[in-house]
Design a protein that fits this description.
Elements (H helix, E strand, L loop, with lengths): L10 H37 L10 E6 L2 E7 H13 L5 H20 L6 H43 L5 H14 L6 H18 L35
Antiparallel strand pairs: 1-2
């Protein structure tokens, strides 16, 4: 089985990448919290009491000297017409008031008529951070998985160990998460300690080629035997 070609990681390179991976893993939660803080801030500004274009603004006021509850603009006009006429509201009037309330509430929830630039900007900002949160979560998870596969596979290849050990290290950690397998807290902690411990141990094991093989050592020259009084190689036995 070949993963990432024939790449190899020495102990020093592996240790540096492992340290960077730990730092990245620690930084993931603050990154997600920062994105969600911006999203929540945009949501609070968007839901704050403010005008959304006039036709769907809830307003209050006085009718015949009495304080009236918050009403949409169409409801307010109809109530003032009924009060000015001096008659009691009919069933048709009450039905119209209910229809205007439903229409105004629906328009406000869907932001229909919210044409001002500030509201549109807040809606776009909230949607952007909502999408960014999902994309960042997927991207950071992919970086972690691919990075671990590359590091462990290349380190095992440098040590000279079989590649199937890669799955023995990663499977106990990722399989329960992918398949949502419930595990006791003690088992989860044990798997986590085993995983990080195994990654650290790989940084201290020497590579397969740390010392030159014996077959590549230069052969020692055999001293020539000379006869007494001879010069150079003449007369060597």
């Amino acid at each position: 089985m070949t993963i990432f070609g024939q790449f190899r990681l020495t102990r020093i390179t592996y240790a540096v990448l492992l340290l960077l991976m730990f730092c990245f893993d620690i930084a993931k939660d603050p990154i997600e919290r920062l994105i969600m803080a911006e999203h929540d801030q945009a949501s609070r500004e968007l839901m704050a009491p403010r005008s959304t274009g006039g036709t769907v603004t809830a307003v209050g006021g006085e009718v015949s000297g009495k304080n009236m509850p918050l009403m949409f603009k169409g409801q307010e006009e109809l109530v003032k017409q009924i009060a000015a006429s001096g008659r009691k509201p009919t069933a048709e009037d009450m039905q119209n008031l209910s229809a205007m309330a439903a229409k105004g509430a629906t328009q406000m929830r869907l932001r229909v008529g919210a044409s001002d630039a500030e509201t549109a900007k807040l809606v776009s900002r909230r949607s952007f951070f909502e999408t960014l949160y999902m994309v960042a979560g997927i991207a950071m998870t992919a970086i972690t998985i691919v990075g671990l596969l590359y590091m462990v596979s290349s380190r095992l290849r440098d040590i000279g160990w079989p590649q199937y050990l890669l799955w023995l290290l990663l499977a106990p950690v990722f399989l329960p998460r992918f398949f949502a397998i419930p595990l006791p807290t003690l088992a989860t902690q044990g798997i986590t300690f085993f995983f990080y411990g195994a990654l650290l141990v790989l940084a201290f094991i020497p590579g397969e080629d740390s010392s030159p093989p014996a077959r590549y050592k230069l052969a020692q020259p055999t001293p020539a035997k000379r006869r007494p009084g001879q010069f150079g190689r003449l007369g060597t036995q």
